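User: Can you write out an input/output pair for a complex, sequences first and structure second?

Assistant: Here is one pair. Inputs:
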Amino acid sequence: MIPRFRFAPSPTGGLHIGTARTALFNWLAARSVGGKLILRIEDTDIKRSTAAYEKSIIEDLKWFGLDWDEFYRQSERNWIYQRFARELLDENKAYRCFCTPERLEDLKKRQYAEGMMSKYDNRCRELSGGEIEKNLKEGKKFAIRFKVEDGKEIKFCDLIRGEISFRSEVIGDFIIIKSDGTPSYNFAAVVDDGDMKITHVLRGEDHITNTARQILLFKSLGFSLPSFAHISMILGKDGSKLSKRHGATTISQFREEGYLAEAIGNYLSILSWAPRDGEEIFGIRDIMGKFKIPDISKSPAIFDVDKLKWINGIYIRRKSTEELARLCTPYLIKEKIIDKKDLGNEKVMSKIVKGASALRDNLKVLNEFPQYIKDLFREKIAGYSKDAVEILTLDTSAVVLQSFLGRLESELKSFDNNQDIDFNEEKSKNLINMIGESLKELKIKGKFLYMPIRVSITGKTHGPELPRVISILGLKNCIQRVNQTLEYIKNNKL
RNA sequence: GGCGCAUUCGUCUAGUGGUCCAGGACAUGGCCCUCUCACGGCUAAAACAGGGGUUCAAGUCCCCUAUGCGCUACCA
């Protein structure tokens, strides 16, 4: 028998990072043993579910690199829930409950006040045939409740946690069909897991308690029990449930901020699971054979953005320059550093490629790209930082800048007037070396050589390697900027 | 309140009774590389929640307490 796993999101929001991890683990577990993965949309809550969320969840799952073998939507399967509910009704394992929401609310309040666990008081359990008939005739709305016998022990062996048991009296008769005719979560899930012949239920820890109810249903419905495994929750930095307060929580938010699918998959894999060899950097496909459900950690995990960033940086460094440039471009548009119509402009595009190559090692998240590169897209220097001004104040700096400017100008002359000037890294490097050579006698070298040059074309003391900066800016812009800096020195009498 | 689950460095984890004065990774500090920032390399500091058992021996097994989280819906 081939193992069958399922992933069952409800489309009441985007794909949450925790839900994505559950999806990933199901995928990993299924693919590791050659099993099938079923995607099931649990949209029985007609008030909160939307088609838009469903679409976004599916898109995110695909972007994430997951695939599945079968697809179902619970809202299209109502007839089957009705059929099984009818069966339970006929077998006297379930009954119609005519209690109003108000009465139930009241009951709950009273029980809570007495310090008791809230639980249905079984009022409609023993309604006579006549009373039911009468209520039905009056058109009273009803829900269908499942009978839970007291005094039973419900046990199951969780693949991750070991044996877990509950006593049936803490459960109470629960609703399987709501008064609007839709099935409740516990019922729909069990009917589907049974009907779809699911062998492994791998889901979030928040379902442990539900498992007790569901086991009762599996048995009453005559289905064989699947194996259960409950994955711990993902918590925020402060130990509370991960929420908007902690930053991005859905896959699409992470994608928009500039996290790579590979990085998220990798990070989520090592959150609650560790390969035997201790290696932390791997693709989700690399661990397919190694992933074992019992190895999943029991304790909750705090989501560490810093570690995700570290991993994201690693995958960014593995990208080709062209691919990285392509990935970074949308962020440039978003920050209005370039315009959409620049996408066809070869000069702009080559500048982005050069920038991507220069900044690859600095990037941790794609959306950091604009802040690093924006200065190099301007015509002029926007301003000089404090430590940059200090560099300019040095006596030797003026000498270096004159020499630099001279070199740039003579270099420019070597090109024909209307020729497209591509001043690459190699040439930039040579140019700097030549300056160094000519200033050797003055013993200007190292920091005293490079820093004034850097400051004169960027206004800052930090940035990518100098030859790269020069190459990105191009000869003309460099000349313009050095002149601007010379002007600045003069005006401020540095 | 009831029930359930969890608890190893700040964080993620390795550890399945002796090889653990507890190993790795992120983050942090220092050093090296280096024009700077990063990258890379080296290094330092940093943990078995507390208390009882069981055992020759406990991070590892059992019990209690504490703390955190989840469920306690005609949400999923």
